[in-house]
Amino acid sequence: MEQVEIVKIVNKVYPLISKDNNCDAKIEYHYNIYERLSGEKGMTGEVQASAEYDWDTNKIYIYTSQMYSEEDIIRSLIHECVHSRQLKCTFDSFYENGHTYDTHPYEIEARNAEEEWEIYISIL
Q1: 3-class secondary structure, 63
Q2: pTM of the model as a whole
Q3: For 9-43, how does the pLDDT look when each residue is reduced to its tens digit (9 = 90+)?
Q4: Which of 78, 85, 60, 107 has its CA nearest to residue 16?
Q5: Which of 23, 22, 45, 49 shows the shortest CA–CA distance to 34?
């Protein structure tokens, strides 16, 4: 999907997703996590995150290279909004204490919340 199309979809669904999830994070778009972190266009790597929440800036980063459908966009927004309500210190401590993405309680909560994505498709 082109970024302009992704932005249009986000602009339609995010107001309701943010309201439903008590999330006031700003949205920022980047091609991928490597370009965002390095500031260098064309930078790539092995991990392909679709989105990320940053507690320090209260931003949701949408990685446009990983947005293939309306479902991807909606799920990413829901997932990151859930993270915005979680405590960063607890989030980090789960990983520090041996949890993986699959066993991390906050990630499980966010993935479970994504299952409600279809209620937002009618907005589009």
Answers
A1: strand
A2: 0.95
A3: 999 999 999 999 999 999 999 999 999 999 999 89
A4: 78
A5: 45
